[in-house]
Amino acid sequence: MAEHSQAVTAGQATRALVAGSVGNFIEWYEFGVYGYLATVIAGNFFTLQGQSGLTGLLLTYASFALAFFCRPIGAIIFGRIGDRIGRKPTLIAVVLLMTLATTMIGLLPTYAAIGVAAPLLLTLMRMLQGLFAGGEFGGAVSLMTEFAPPGKRGLYGAWQSFTVSLGLLCGVGLVALLAYGLGSEQLTQWGWRIPFLLALPMGLVALWLRVRLDETPTFTQTKKAGVLAAPAPLGTTLKAIALGIGRMMGWSAGGYTFLVVMPSYLQTSLHASFLQALVATVLGNLGFALAILPAGLLSDKLGRKKVMIAAMLVVIVLSFPLLHLLQDSQSSLWAKGIAVLIAGAAIGAIAGPGPAMLAEMFPTRTRYTGLGLSYSLSNAVFSGCAGLIITGLIKQTGNLDIPAWYVVATCIVSLFALMTLRRDDHLRELEK
Predict the structure, then answer these.
(1) Residues with Cβ < 8 Å from 29, sequence gap 6 or more?
(2) CA-based Rg of the chain, rounded to a whole angstrom?
(3) What's the pLDDT tens digit per position in 270-304?
(4) Is the dihedral of CA 88, 94, 97, 102 positive or negative?
(5) In the chain, N or C terminus with fewer CB closer than 10 Å?
(6) Quick one: which of 384, 380, 322 has its CA closest to 347?
(7) pLDDT by residue (tens digit) across 64-115?
(8) Contact partners, residue 362, CB within 8 Å, separation at least 6
(9) Phi, psi of 51 (to 5 degrees)
(10) What is the rounded distance in angstroms from the CA atom of residue 241 to the CA atom of residue 367?
């Protein structure tokens, strides 16, 4: 512990926190924007002749899911690079490529201009974006937790989740501002491009911050000791990744159901207006943001296991009552606002300790890859497909409780996976 604290200055730790966080902010800002603008994007790119609006929305979410399924490939490619040559150069490459792909989405012609080539090009950009974003989480969390002072890994890792919430909030706030300022017609015609084009200046700031970074002391020490050259046991790594996915299922499914898919659900299934849906989403993301850092800090005191299991139980118990409150036409707007705020806070309490929990599962030589794969595979299946699964099942069955069933089922699996955590993981040094 003493060696680690002497090796890292306060300035280095702060730079790592900021540089690691900014990439996550950009990534989730854009993914959030795409989710919030799903109905607008469906109209511009996926409105096929003779098909219903719900079919266009399903195709939009299919493109959304494809981007998530490219993430594990990116996690493998960039994870291997990051575990071999270092966190810093890999994270520089990732944020540059991710920014270029996002900016290109804002420049694409629509279906009305070039026909079927438009949704194909959009889907290609989404896939590239997902590929590059797959290298972000593993590197950013490795960076933050490996630079974290003793006893603060939970808090440092929580900043990854916190900047996710800031990215989502910034995305929904900008979309709401554009919807209010431009009106529905102009937003649909050209205003939707603005959030994607703003990724370019954001990405340049992130690039500047990452160029100024130092390599993590944990990676440097492990490299000097020659540990990186030794092959990691494949079976042990795969087992840890599978367990990591299990621990993340509820976090992934709940987060995307309550924070990203909810606007489209409120519009298409509960007939809320576009602005009403966005306001509800702002409140959900606000609750998410407010809970993250306290939960990460609390996990440094009480342990990841206690905090995450308690939060998972809250999500399971409250999912149906909160959804029924939203569905009740007699309930007040205040009650509905509090409901989505609570839902967001419950997910935030899981997401706070989550990054540190995952970092503690892998040794330094496989941490970037293991973190990235656990996170990206869980998100590919349980986040990326959330909109597709929920919208598709509602269309098929007419059951408006599908979002709650989806969240509860995944959280129950995660609950059992989290029970395998050791109570003192937060007290141990990261494995070299």
Answers:
(1) 167, 168, 170, 171, 195, 199, 202
(2) 21
(3) 777 767 777 777 788 889 999 999 999 999 999 99
(4) negative
(5) N
(6) 322
(7) 778 778 989 999 999 999 999 999 999 999 999 999 999 999 999 988 888 8
(8) 237, 240, 369, 370, 371, 431
(9) -105, 155
(10) 10
